[in-house]
Amino acid sequence: xxxxxxxxxxxxxxxxVGGVAGAYFYWKKFAEPEIGVVAQMEGTAEIMKEKPDxxxxxxxxxxxxxxxxxxVSARDRLRxxxxxxxxxxxxxxxxxxxxxVNLDLLLSNIPQPKKTIYxxxxxxxxxxxxxxxxxxxxxxxxxxxxxxxxxxxxxxxxVYPLEFRVEIDLEKKLITVYDEDLFFKEYEITGxxxxxxxxxxxxxxxxxxVAWFGERPLNFTDANYMNCSKWIRTGKxxxxxxxxxxxxxEEDSSAFGVKVSKADMEELFTILRxxxxxxxxx
Length: 282
What we know:
It contains 7 helices and 12 strands. It is α+β, with helices and mostly antiparallel strands.
């Protein structure tokens, strides 16, 4: 009887060992490889969920064109990217570069459509030259490397009709400049102080460009013109574009308007002329 019980116990042990060995064999032979394949497939599926960045190629090609000095071709390639691949991770950098290239082309002597050379005649003044050519005094001075208002008969000046319009987006904190319907450049709004009753959407125009030094207004013939404060007044009360406080300066909380950096204010003052359209959006 004892031997029979021992035999049964031994048989049960063999069955257990066999079961464990069989389970291990099945795991190594079938289950583990299958799990690995499934995991690999799931990993591939995750990768496949990420759409390829089709705009990246155009961005890289534009960078190479910039290195070769082909500014117009590079800008046009980036404009193509912005139009057809707005979801690209390179979109915002492409927009920034387009803005910088546009400004470089505008202020340089590189030939561009609508850019012409004006030959100064006796009796001419910068103000009349700017008015006749639909541009600004500041543009003529910057594009021609002038630090004073002095001009001479037979002097050749680069001129360009500035037909820009402005969109002020309070939600995105951006001022965007368009050349007719084409994106030109955008500027970050560093601060906003508008009257409570001034609500978007608003359409208006630039009514006045003001240069101020100390306690007095001045014009471009003044020796302090290059270092004065500037702001742009629109047809809506309280809607100004002005320079915000620099780092370390105290902000004038009573000054109405949307505020940008000093460098951006200088650019906007240069390229925007009286009468330009301005729209305020949310």
